[in-house]
């Protein structure tokens, strides 16, 4: 069975600081997909990124960047120059890539609550 | 935004009563899911559906049943609610047309069982 671990339960940073959210996953499958979702205080879940296991290139989107390292089974998320609007709970998730029923299930980590202090 | 509507948005009920939560989608997506979110546990899958009348259990299915008689509706039923089922319930959908399809989530239902 697969597992996603987000060891940081809560993080507080001062605005404009950089912050990295850690995600470590476990799976025996060689093909899988990794996701990050954001849950702001309003409660909805917002998709941020997906990455497949064959693509280890890092990705940058504005102030957000993701570092995927297959060798350490990690998919870390960095926010550069954090802002108060970044305050949210962030979830890392894993999905296996097979074609059977339920193959689109996501296994979530427990989430990291980020508080950005003005 | 994906067209997903969960109802009700908030529900307070008493232990032992039946409760049904509804998820309605307008995207014609094949896959639908029910997750529950609890502090310290993240999101955990309750049940999912991969087509009309095709459902299966997730990680925390005990005490829950589901039904999907139409593509657009996925119902979650607590036959006899317990306090441990107090949670926020999220419905999610995915199209299944791409192997890396992401899930879209509804706004959630806050359920309190007293």
List the topology elements:
The complex is a heterodimer of chains A (118) and B (114).
Chain A: E1 3-5, E2 10-14, E3 19-21, E4 24-26, E5 32-39, E6 46-52, E7 59-61, E8 64-69, E9 74-79, E10 88-96, E11 107-108, E12 112-117
Chain B: E1 4-7, E2 10-13, E3 19-25, E4 31-38, E5 42-51, E6 54-57, E7 64-70, E8 73-78, E9 87-94, E10 104-105, E11 109-113
Parallel strand pairs in B: 2-11
Antiparallel strand pairs in B: 1-3, 3-8, 4-5, 4-9, 5-6, 7-8, 9-10, 9-11
Task: Supply the key terms.
heterodimer; A: 118 residues; mainly beta; six-stranded mixed β-sheet; four-stranded antiparallel β-sheet; globular; B: 114 residues; seven-stranded mixed β-sheet; 0% helix; 57% strand
Can I get a quick summary?
The complex is a heterodimer of chains A (118) and B (114). Chain A is built from no helices and 12 strands. With 118 residues, chain A is mainly beta.
Outline the structure in words:
The complex is a heterodimer of chains A (118) and B (114). By secondary structure, chain A is mainly beta. Chain A has strands at 3-5, 10-14, 19-21, 24-26, 32-39, 46-52, 59-61, 64-69, 74-79, 88-96, 107-108, 112-117. Chain A starts with a strand and ends with a strand. With 114 residues, chain B is mainly beta. Chain B has strands spanning 4-7, 10-13, 19-25, 31-38, 42-51, 54-57, 64-70, 73-78, 87-94, 104-105, 109-113. In chain B, strands 2, 4, 5, 6, 9, 10 and 11 form a seven-stranded mixed beta sheet that branches. The mean pLDDT of chain B is 92.
């Amino acid at each position: 069975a697969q597992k996603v671990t987000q060891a940081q339960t809560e993080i507080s940073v001062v605005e404009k600081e950089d912050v990295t959210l850690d995600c470590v996953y476990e799976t025996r499958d060689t093909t899988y997909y990794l996701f990050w979702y954001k849950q702001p205080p309003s409660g909805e879940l917002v998709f941020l990124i997906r990455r497949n296991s064959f693509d280890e290139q890092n990705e940058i989107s504005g102030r957000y960047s993701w570092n995927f390292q297959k060798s350490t089974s990690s998919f870390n998320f960095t926010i550069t120059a954090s802002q108060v609007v970044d305050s949210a709970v962030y979830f890392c998730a894993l999905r296996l890539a097979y074609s059977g029923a339920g193959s689109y299930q996501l296994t979530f980590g427990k989430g990291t609550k980020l508080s950005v202090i003005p | 935004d994906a067209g997903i509507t969960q109802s009700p948005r908030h529900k307070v009920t008493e232990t032992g009563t039946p409760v049904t939560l509804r998820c309605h989608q307008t995207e014609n997506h094949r896959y639908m899911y029910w997750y529950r979110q609890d502090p310290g546990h993240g999101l955990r899958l309750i049940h999912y559906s991969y087509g009309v009348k095709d459902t299966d259990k997730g990680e925390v299915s005990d005490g829950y049943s589901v039904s999907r008689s139409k593509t657009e509706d996925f119902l979650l039923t607590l036959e006899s609610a317990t306090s441990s089922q107090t949670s926020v319930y999220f419905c999610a959908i995915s199209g299944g047309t791409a192997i890396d399809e992401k899930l879209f989530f509804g706004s959630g239902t806050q359920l309190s069982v007293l």
